[in-house]
Structure formats: C-alpha cells, structure tokens
Amino acid sequence: MWLDHLAVERGASAHTLSNYRRDAARYLGWLAEAGISDLGEVDASHLEAYVADLRRGERPLASSSAARALVVARGLHKFAAAEGVVGSDVSAAVAPPGAGEKLPETLSVAEVERLIEACPTQTPTQLRDRALVETLYATGARVTEALDITVDDVSGGEDVITVTGKGDKQRIVPLGSHARAAIDAYLVRGRPALASGASHALFLNKRGTALSRQSAWTVVKGAAQRAGIDKDISPHTLRHSFATHLLEGGADVRTVQELLGHSSVTTTQIYTHVTAENLREVWKTAHPRA
Predict the structure, then answer these.
(1) Given 180, 191, 239, 245, which residue is catalytic?
(2) Residue-wise burial string across 251-285, b where 16 or more C-beta atoms lie within 10 A, e elsewhere
(3) Which residues does the entry assign to the active site, renumbered to this chain (predicted)?
C-alpha cells in the first residue's frame, strides 16, 4: 500500500520504487528475524539497531545507503501511523547515520619521490617548481602558506621555517635537507632570473610577482602527469601525504597537529583513519585468515 501511495500520490519513478521496494523488503526481513511481525511492536531502539546492523554487517553499507534504508523504514512507519495502522510514528526521532568524513587522497612515499623527480632543474622556473614541491611536502604547509613565504624567511640557511597560518598564527616547521637544498638552488640559480620587481615572495612567476595559487596547482598537476600518477591531486594532497607519512613513521597525533597548525586534534585525527585503512588493506592481503 505504501509503495502504491508513493507511485500515485507522490509520482515516484519506477527506479525509485524499485529501490524502495528492495529496502522495504530488507527492513521487513530484518524485523522478521528479530521476531517482530507487526509494525506496532517496533520502537525507536529497533530502528537504531537496524541501521547499526546495516553499517557493520558482513557487507556493510555506506552511510548514504544506510541513510536511504532508514528513509524507507521511516516512510513505512509514517504511512502506517497516518493510516491508523499503528498508534504513533516511532521512527520520527531516529536520526540518519552521519555522512562520515571523506578520507583525503594521499600519495605513497614512492609516488612523492616520483613527483619530485618529475620536476627537472634546468631553468629558473623548473628550479622554482622543484623547490615549491619539496617545500609543500617537507612542511605540510597549505598552498597559501607556502606562497606567503618570503626570501627573508629562508635566507638564513636554517633547517626550520616559520609558517604563518590561519588567523596569522605562526608555527615552526622543520624544512628538511632536501627542501633546503632545493630552495638554495632556486635562490642562487632561479629566483634572480625571475626577480624584476620589489616582491619579497620566495616563489615568483615570470613577471617577477608572487606565484598565484592557481599556478601552484598547475605546477603540481603537471609534475603528477609527467610522473605518471593518475590520482586527482593538488598541492593539498602533499599536505595530506605529509601528515599520513609522519603517522605511519611513528609520529604521535599531537605532534602532527602542531606541524599542521590545526587548532584541534580532532581535525588531525582524520589521518589516523587513513593509516588505519592502510593497515586494514595490508592485513587483508597478508593475513592467512583475512
């Protein structure tokens, strides 16, 4: 009756009705296995348990699919209450599962090395591009933070750099020997050929002004194409990779939080999910009883 109501009163498409019919059958089957044959016997805890089972079963559903399954179950209960079949709609207070956080795209260590090696160092702009990619990965800086670095910030030859983040909050981040060498090479053989104005920015374009965010994206995407990396990456991918590789190497979350400039460790913990996914995949591949 409910599906007929959707078709006639709501004008639901055949595709939608097919999906809802499947979800309704799954829900009623779950109730039957729980020993419930009447919607009037269902309370909110049953619906919550149903959604939980969908998310953690042998073939767990994505949160979006589980949310749709709950929409169908709630539709059944709402229709039953409206038709007087049950006394009240017990599903109204049951919230759909959270959408969950999308795990960021990352590169493996080998892919990062290929990306960097795909930046030649023959011309001034090539030296700049190599220094930019090395800096993004070495520091985990946001692209805007990297583009705000000035010559004075790196002219002392130190192996650390002060990065200015959101809200003008500053943090000290190790630069690393490879990034330091790339920056030094760019300062000696690259930047002087590009500098034609008064800009103090470290990374310059051919006009002698600060490199734009869009140009930085072009640099990274061009290097990825030359390296044969078919992932959809951006400068931010290097930030994600920086954090993931640190955690995989044994760094604690609080340290990575400080290096990334996150105000809350909760933001940083997304990267622990990434490393957990990596561990799970390795386990599935290597464990004899996976």
Answers:
(1) 239
(2) eebeebbebbbbeeeeebebbeebbeeeeeeeeee
(3) 142, 166, 236, 239, 262, 271
Helix (H) or strand (E) holding 172: strand 170-174
Q: Is 262 a catalytic residue?
A: yes
DSSP 231: S
Task: Confirm whether 245 is a catalytic residue.
Answer: no
Provide CATH code, domain 2-82. Answer: 1.10.150
166 tagged catalytic: yes
The type of residue at 42 is: V
Architecture of the CATH domain 109-285:
Orthogonal Bundle (1.10)
Domain boundaries, the chain: 2-82, 109-285
**Whole-number Å distance between alpha carbons of 123 and 127:** 6
pTM: 0.64
44-83 pLDDT per residue, tens: 888 888 887 877 766 777 777 778 888 888 888 888 888 8
Q: Are 224 and 129 in contact (CB under 8 A)?
A: no
Active site residue 271: yes
Q: Is 21 a catalytic residue?
A: no
